[in-house]
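Technical note accompanying the year-one report. For the benefit of new consortium partners, we illustrate the data format agreed upon in the data management plan: each record pairs a sequence with a structure-token string. No post-processing was applied to the example shown here.
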Amino acid sequence: DLFVIASPAQTTGKIHVQAVVQNAASQAERGYVEFTVADARSGATTAALHLPREFPTGTSQIEADLVIDSPHLWDLNDPYLYRVTARVAVAGANSFDERSTRCGFRDFRFADGYFRLNGRRIYLRSSHTCNHYPIGIQFAQDPDLLRRDMINMKVMGFNMIRFIWGGATTVQLDLCDEIGLLVY
């Protein structure tokens, strides 16, 4: 079993990847972990790393840094994302386990009394939304309702959203990343 976390650093172009591998076998297994970084839209690989490993019984954590030369920054009007994939396999097996996550290079902070995204001062325009729907409460009768809600916020000129009543779902957070909407 495999779990992956990716942490990009805008200033260095590094993506620090952590993979947690669970070996449920009764003995250690030889194999490999492969990390790749690709453009989330086109799938073109920009960095890769192949690490031969021995997986002891139980949990192992494998960490590595992948470097992207001149990383494309995520921005409100250009929400560029990378897909980080970890693949683990055991020697001699015909199968593998693979997990991926998306991330973007961005820096957001308050400096000199202003909010800055990638060093550029921006005025935050935010609104609230919730995870409840008119029909279905937690699960919308129309699955596209969630997507339309976020896109309407973006079209109305908001650049940030706050989820109330239970926090955002993974689907909502992923959508905000895709369309260039900050989350408070």
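Partners are asked to follow this layout when depositing records. The first helix runs from residue 144 to 155.
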